[in-house]
Structure formats: C-alpha cells, structure tokens
Please model this.
Amino acid sequence: MSDKRFKTDTILTKLGRDPDDYHGLMNPPIVQASTIQYKDLETYETKKGQKFTYGNISNPLSDHFETAMAELEGGFKAVSSSTGLAPITASLMAFLNSGDHLLMCDSIYPPTRIACDKLLGRFGVEVEYYDPCIGAGIKDLIKDNTAVIYLESPGSATFEVQDVPAITKIAKDADVITIMDNTWASGLLFKPVAHGVNISVCAATKYIGGHADVNLGYAVADTQEHYKRLKDTHIDLGHCPGSLDLSLALRGLRTMKMRLQHQAASALKIARWLEGRPEVQKVYHVALESHPTHDIWKRDFTGANGLMSILLNNYPKERVSAFIDALELFPIGSSWGGYMSLLQPQIEINWRKANKWNEAGQLLRLQIGLEDPDDLIADLEQAFAKLG
Model:
C-alpha cells in the first residue's frame, strides 16, 4: 500500500511503478504479450510460482496499473479492461443471477442503462431504477431477491450527489452488494470503499488518461472474496486492456491532480458566470451552492472537476443549433476528462424513469478543459448572441 508519510501529490508520482523491476527504468515499459512461457510441465499444471499465465489475464504492465488503482481507491485489488463500460458490465454480471433484483440509480451513464435494459433483461434480471437522492429511503425498495444496488455519484447530466454512506449501511444490513461508478471523482476526489461500497468502477478514459487518447476502465474490489468473483467473471468475459492505453493512463495519473484542480477552478468560475446569463435557466454544477445536493458533495468529496450542465431557455431548435455551431472552443464530443473543452447535448435525459424529465429547454453538458477560462467565457458570450 502507499506510504502513509506522503501526501496525494507525492503518492501520484509513485503509484504503479517500481524501477527495481526493470533495471532502474523509471516507468514500466509497454508489454506486448499473449503467450507466456512455463519452465516445465509441473509449473504449467499447478501454476505454482507462475505469476503470469496468459497475456489477456494479466501481464507486468496491467499488474502495475491495477496495483496503482487499488491503492488510489483504497481497495483490495483491481481488474482492468479496454473500455470504461467493460468493468461495469463485468461487475454486474459477477454479482447478479437470473431472477435477481437490481436497484439501479436513475442518473446513470447512458451506456450502463442500455446494458441493463438490453443485456441484463435477456438474462432474467429485474432492473428497477431509483431516485438518486433517495438516501436511506432505499430501504423501502429492497426486496427478498435484491442482490445489487448500483450507484453513480455524482450522476450523469445533472450531477446528483448520492448519500453513499446511508445507502451502503442499509445495503450491508440487507446483505446486498453495492457497486458504484466513481468516474466523476476518478479515484481521487472520493473513495467509495472507505464509504462502504463493495466494488468501485471507473473509466480511466476520462481524467486518469486525461488527453482524450485512451480507452480504459477498471474495477476495484473491497475484499479478497469479492475480488475473486470479479476477476473470475472478468476472465470468463475475455476482458483485457491494451498495453499502450495502460502506459498512457499511468503517465496521465502523474498529473491528474494538477489538471483536475485547474479544470475545477475554471469550471466554477464559468458556472458562476453562467448563473447570471439571461439565456440560462439552470446551471448544474456540484460546487455551486444552488445545486440541490451541494451539501452532500461538500461533506463527502475533497474537490470538484470540470463538468457541468446548463439548461437553456426554451428556444427553437434552430436558434440552439446556431448557438452550438457558433462555439469555437466547445466542439461537440461525447466524452470528457481530456485537456480540451467539449459540449454534448443531453438527449438521453428523457430516458429517466424514477423522476421523469419534464424541463422545457435544451440541456447541454459542458466539459471544461485546460484552456484559459476567460477565453472560454468569451467564446460562450459571442455564441449566446446567436440565440437572439
């Protein structure tokens, strides 16, 4: 585990590398491996003393990355995969069986919802969506066959912060597994395992990679028992990460805190400016006092990131299009966490079931990058003029 003498900035420079393993090389080299040689038949049959058995199960580089993520999140061990969605589906399938009941946060990442509705439904899992702000009220939704409660905090699009300690306490009392998408905090701003979560999943594609050039995800288990179940399912599904992505993610890890701090400061400045714009009905950003779950965020999290959403007034579609197309520094893009700013229309907000979306007006998610915030504000201001 990480040396407790050091603070986070120092720890991030040390995680996931050991120069003694590679003749003094400061960074673990990229490992391209499928086949791994055994020294004799007995070793092949027993696997005794054989740390790596096949390339898609683990290799020296994935081992370094997974060790780093487990230490960052404060968990037992981690598995890694080639996308952010892969550890989500693997975690769900590891702890759900046909006939089980799954309580799924209604503000989840849209691909997770698609996987629940299409994949889990085919295998006989009952999926029920719950209000992310339910807190201890989750107790009333637990059934005899409830096997998993899935959290995402803050949630996608409108960034509801869940009362994770209240939910995990009830889940433990009911012997229900909890899985949480921790991508917003990226293992740095919130520690799910320390708050009672059994499995923390994260898309390293976002802030850990940090440069919009990585496809990678991981899941961290709280105990050896849960890790074994997770790892077995991970292997059965054939998940494995790409070597270049692992290397880039370890590189991104070194600067993640500095990038997050800059992006969070810029985002808060821009969010406060947007609150004063007549074209904007609402700004959804957890660090704003106006956000409905600001107090829970302030209680449980150590910082914010560069994400927010804005709800425009109910303008005609052509005027909204003119606004978006006039932006120079906010290209349309589906991801976030990289160095550049992005905009994404939140079309999937209409999929919500526990709390139907009834707001009139276009909801737009803004990812604030590393650009100067004054330049981003100026770009937004000139584009607002297109709304008329």
About this structure: The mean pLDDT is 93. Residues 205 and 214 are 5 Å apart (CA to CA). The chain has two domains: 8-251, 256-387. The first helix runs from residue 8 to 14.
